[in-house]
Amino acid sequence: MTEEALARIEADPRYVALVRERTRLAWLLTALMVTAFLGYVLLIAFDKALLGMPIGGGVTSLGIPVGFGLILFAILLTAIYVRRANGAFDRLTAAILAEVEA
Amino acid sequence: MSRGPRYLCEGGVLLLIAGSAPPALAAAVEGQAERQPINWTAIALFALFVALTLWITRRAAQRTRTASDFYTAGGGISGFQNGLAMAGDYMSAASFLGISAQIFTDGYDGLIYSTGFLVGWPIILFLMAEKLRNLGRYTFADVASYRFAQPPVRSFAAVSTLLVVAFYLIAQMVGAGQLIKLLFGLPYGYAVVIVGVLMMAYVLFGGMRATTWVQIIKAVMLLAGATFIAVMVLARFGFSPEALFARAVQVKTNLALAGGATPDEAAAQGRSIMAPGKFIKDPVSAISFGLALMLGTAGLPHILMRFFTVPNAREARTSVLWATTWIGYFYLLTFVIGFGAIVLVATDPIYLDADGALRGGGNMAAIHLAQAIGGDAFLGFISAVAFATILAVVAGLTLSGASAVSHDLYATVFRRGSATSAEELRVSRITTVLLGVMAVLLGLAFEKQNVAFMVSLAFALAASGNFPVLVLSLMWKDCTSRGAAIGGLIGLLTAFVLTVLSPAIWEKILLLEHAPFPYTSPAIFSVPIAFLAIWLISTLDRSPRAAVDRAGFREQRIRSETGIGAAQASSH
Questions:
Q1: Residue B387 binned pLDDT confidence (cut-offs 50, 70, 90)
Q2: Considering all CA atoms of chain A, what is the largest pairwise distance in Å, rounded to the nearest integer?
Q3: Is the ipTM of this complex over 0.85?
Q4: A-contacting residues of B 253-282, CB under 8 Å?
Q5: What is the pLDDT of residues A22-47, one digit of tens each?
Q6: What is the DSSP-derived secondary structure letter of residue B359?
Q7: Residue A62 phi/psi, 5° resolution?
Q8: Of A14, B38, B204, B552, which is the most exposed, with the fewest CB atoms less than 10 Å away?
């Protein structure tokens, strides 16, 4: 990559916005995933009985929807990121590159 | 004897970090798996799988001419295919047999492992997937060393890859030998040699293309088999999970009563399968376990390598979405399968020995369940799936280890980039054979050894070496060659030493008393130590090279964010 191309991309406000937005989204989702999982593990470490509490009058415990929910939450977070990144972010990237390569 | 799960309870968290193999390995560890009568249906179905994969390997071999074909299947795999292959690379026989066995014995605790194995995947996506694809070509070391002096950082990455691969591979080989003795009624040594020869054949002749297809076929077989079992189980309870759980609690209560418990104790034991049990003890081990699983997944070289098989960053992201979806779905199925086994297997004398324990060992829960709902033919199918599963995992590991030697050490460090594609390919193939022979010999040597700690060690090493080096080289401008190489080695060393000092090795293998390091996983210490070491060494680094490293960040960053100049896919 030439120095000129680098300088042009760096100066492009769309590039600055792309990096800022994507970095913010990535760290936000990372923080959500880490908090949810470590929160789950710590909840079990400190209060085992809570997740064993039956819900809905049967034997199904609170831990079932929480554990299944965590699995679905992980899939949901990846879906959110992929949707934004493969849509808006990729369009922005293509626009920036089209100009540099032109 | 229900050895696997029992060992898990004693060993606590550490084994679980093991990820792929623990409970199945546990059978290998404590007692030798009992050899079963030869299962001809399973052998015939497995032979069919081998024939299909060897045919694919032959076709792939005709298209494997360059280093790029060998390492990345020419970069022409789609996101959907790669997602399935990643799932196939990651879901091992033990995730299936081991976690369902764990649920069969302890109930809810199995779900905690499952979530742990899943949460690393979103982290890979958010922090690295597209940057890896934009910066690298063949191995994760391409990315970690992008702006650095090649020899030190590549050497670190190769050492780390080979260590992770070696421990993971030995554990898989020993697990395979025990499992196949159990499922097919073949002697341990035959099983290890068959696995070694087949994995060598796939990688040697078909490279990444054959490995990918073996992993895809295995993933489809495993997902289909597990779906069938789970649906059949739920169908017996009118598709009401509550009805399934209620019956399982009742079965466990009755078993406790029959075992001489008072009605109150029995009811408590029955209900205990719906709540977290012995698995998580102290908060430090809990967090350490969580970190090792999460960050270790994001540092496994054979998983990271799969990002270079897709044409661009977009497909790389799509791969992770599919991988996460399939793996998450698989763990949901496993939970139903474990409870199904409580209801249908634990109550049927044909699956139990005189003591009321599972015939063939604790890991047989899912296998017996397959027979209970689908008869002998389906039992054969599930056994063949278990064997295929091991092959797919070991093939991915071998390819990754061979690439570290041929691409990182030989082509980049030793030949300084002057090796031709043909020379590099030849070294990869020689290494593949050496790794295969080594895996078989070690598999035979460790037959009667306790190898349960090895996969957990592999995860801890990946979390403490590869992960910090990758994150800081990608995101921190002031990271230098010296910081990455030495800091990474310090992370590896810390994880290794703390593991040796922990109960899993100190007490169970060295047979010494009072392990100096009381926790089950080193990650809570070794990961921060690695980050700190890289930061400190880089910050103090005033060498001329350090200036070059820091100046290189600008170009690396723009390329990692936009993909400009990224290696293009070339499908031949």
A1: confident
A2: 69
A3: yes
A4: 271-272, 274-277, 279-282
A5: 999 999 999 999 999 999 998 998 88
A6: T
A7: -60, -30
A8: B38
